[in-house]
Amino acid sequence: MSDDMQQNEMKQQVAQAALEWVRDDTVLGVGTGSTVNCFIDALASSGVRLEAAVSSSKATTRRLREIGIEVRELNHAGTLDLYVDGADEFDPHRRLIKGGGGALTREKIVAAASRKFVCIVDETKRVSVLGRFPLPVEVIPMARSYVARQIVAIGGQPEWREGVETDNGNVIIDVHNMDLVDPVDIERRLNDLAGVVSNGLFAIRPANLVLMATREGVQKY
Ligand code: 5RP
Fold this sequence. Notes:
Layout: H1 3-18, E1 27-30, H2 34-44, E2 52-55, H3 58-66, E3 80-85, E4 89-90, E5 96-97, H4 104-112, E6 114-122, E7 135-139, H5 144-153, E8 157-160, E9 171-176, H6 183-191, E10 196-199, E11 201-202, E12 209-214, E13 217-220
Parallel strand pairs: 1-2, 1-3, 3-6, 6-12
Antiparallel strand pairs: 4-5, 5-11, 7-9, 7-10, 8-9, 12-13
């Protein structure tokens, strides 16, 4: 079996495992990405009867509606019991890099508004120190060059994700080779830059539980 097929199988496996945390008659927060797409497929065939979902992106909203789930505005949903989302990397403290799909800001908002964040990943996402995956930063378009210069000043190599516009009408800068040994500090420093909307570090508010698919089954962290 090819590596891609194996990774896809692992995504389906971990998506299925996450159903254990989903309860009938609740409003569920739903993330974005290919692993979450497997989770939405699993939800569709699970028989779970959600009251509604809060979505972290236009793409997820479309998929949820396709399977008949009502998508509710976060402003009308209050605090959510559960948020399920993927990640690009996770470390042993369940701190994450997210935003490979560009949905980091809405993902961070829905995660913040949820009591429990269950992160679903496969084993390729595990690292001992965050930073192998370039760190996405969402930026107001007019601040792109300014923010890029500030990122260089704090030790990163910025790369504009050209041609990409987020659901919020902003741009993404991917930061390479930044020292993320103290991810809480870097998350705060990036947030403090004028023009930064949010960044893909989920360290101040890490996941509560990581479900990681391996070739031998799903492990919990
Ligand atoms: C999107 C994200 C995704 O959760 C992350 O990119 C992982 O995606 P995938 O499940 O496709 O590997 O943060 O903004």
